[in-house]
Amino acid sequence: MQITVLAIGKTDNKELALLIQEYEQRLKHYVKFNFELIPDIKNSKNLSENQQKEREGELILNQLQVSDSVVLLDNKGKQFSSVDFSNYLQKKMNSGTKRLVMIIGGPYGFSEAVYRRCTEKLSLSKMTFSHQMVRLFLVEQVYRGFTILRNEPYHHQ
């Protein structure tokens, strides 16, 4: 299985970007993993929230393949403990999922077209986090999930 994380816009904070890269490197020992950035919409200040979501949605949909299992990071999504999330990843691998695409949207969320395309929605917390921080949290949780599956000492209960 390949896991792809799609995110709108670049990671502005250099320290945060370095931490994300560290977990990306760690993940390569467990799974084919890549983090893809979709460039910010130019002149977004001149667009309404809806227009911005629609434009971002078009860019997101262009990155997807027909067979992708698409998971949106959404505040109304399902929440997992880290152990439950590791079991979720195992089920995806067991089911023959070729590419699991986890999408972090822009500041206003997703267009209706992206919601229609998704397979599932996932929430990292009931709290609201910046889109920049969510990138690190997600990549770390995917890494944690694989260490749990391998019974490695990273995760403690």
TrEMBL record:
Catalytic reaction list: pseudouridine(1915) in 23S rRNA + S-adenosyl-L-methionine = N(3)-methylpseudouridine(1915) in 23S rRNA + S-adenosyl-L-homocysteine + H(+)
| Role played | Specifically methylates the pseudouridine at position 1915 (m3Psi1915) in 23S rRNA.
Subunit structure and binding partners: Homodimer.
Q: Which UniProt keywords apply?
A: Cytoplasm, Methyltransferase, rRNA processing, S-adenosyl-L-methionine, Transferase
**What protein family does this chain belong to?**
Belongs to the RNA methyltransferase RlmH family.
Main location per UniProt?
A: cytoplasm
**Which PANTHER family does the UniProt entry name for this protein?**
METHYLTRANSFERASE, RIBOSOMAL RNA LARGE SUBUNIT METHYLTRANSFERASE H
Query: Does the keyword field hold Cytoplasm?
Result: yes
Record Gene3D superfamilies? 3.40.1280.10
SUPFAM superfamilies hit by this protein = alpha/beta knot (SSF75217)
Task: Report if keyword Methyltransferase is assigned.
Answer: yes
The places in or outside the cell where this protein is found are: Cytoplasm
Q: So where does S-adenosyl-L-methionine get bound?
A: 73, 105, 124-129
**Protein name as it appears in the record:** Ribosomal RNA large subunit methyltransferase H
Entry EC number(s): 2.1.1.177
InterPro entries, per this entry? Alpha/beta_knot_MTases (IPR029028), RlmH-like (IPR003742), tRNA_m1G_MTases_N (IPR029026)
Task: Give the Pfam families listed for this entry.
Answer: SPOUT_MTase (PF02590)
